[in-house]
């Protein structure tokens, strides 16, 4: 993306089409309110993973906020399905994992599954906005590394253009 000044960034963020996938009505309402406070008006929400998979295909969101723990299709399974370019029509949609599970193993698993960003609940309006700015103004290309399909890793091996293996435990975004 070309260089954006602050005014262009704000306009670009306001034009973002967002999909919220969370089984908790009040969490969806809270996130929607935060997004509206930042000028984002094109917000869609669904109450489960199945509806989220369908919604990605029908509304073409610029960004998905995904809950980790849901009853039908949890966040991990949702990520496995979306990040399957051979079977899912929109495998490169940017996804921010939103969860109260902030244990290291959850973060590592989410990264290995191809999330673009990770946010722990309770979430602040500031951290939500920062993740949107990161995804929208500094998008990472999608790559395939072994069995991994997702955003290009941020860490690179020193003095090399080779990416760290996302299947290794030491690999984090």
**Order of strands, widest sheet:** 2-1-3-4-5
Quote the average pLDDT.
Answer: 89
The biggest sheet, with number of strands, parallel, antiparallel or mixed sense and barrel status, is: 5 strands, parallel
Low-confidence stretches: 156-160, 169-173
- Summarize the amount of helix as a percent range: 25-40%
CATH class value: Alpha Beta
Q: What is the CA-atom radius of gyration, in angstroms?
A: 16 Å
What is the 3D shape? globular
Query: What assembly state would you assign to the polypeptide chains in this entry?
Result: single chain
CATH topology: Rossmann fold
> What is the H/E order?
HEHEHEHEHEHEE
Beta-strand content estimate: 15-25%
Count the strands? Answer: 7
């Amino acid at each position: 993306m070309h260089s954006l000044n602050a005014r262009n960034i704000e306009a670009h963020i306001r034009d973002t089409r967002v999909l919220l996938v969370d089984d908790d009505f009040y969490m969806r309402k809270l996130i929607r309110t935060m997004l509206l406070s930042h000028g984002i008006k094109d917000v869609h929400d669904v109450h489960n993973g199945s509806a989220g998979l369908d919604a990605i295909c029908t509304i073409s969101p610029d960004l998905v906020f995904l809950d980790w723990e849901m009853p039908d299709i949890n966040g991990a399974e949702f990520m496995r399905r979306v990040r399957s370019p051979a079977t899912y029509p929109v495998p490169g949609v940017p996804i921010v994992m939103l969860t109260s599970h902030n244990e290291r193993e959850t973060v590592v698993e989410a990264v290995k599954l191809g999330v673009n960003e990770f946010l722990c609940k309770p979430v602040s309006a500031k951290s939500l906005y920062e993740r949107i700015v990161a995804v929208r103004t500094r998008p990472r290309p999608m790559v395939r590394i072994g069995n991994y399909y997702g955003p290009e890793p941020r860490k690179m091996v020193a003095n090399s253009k080779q990416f760290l293996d996302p299947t290794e435990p030491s690999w984090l975004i």
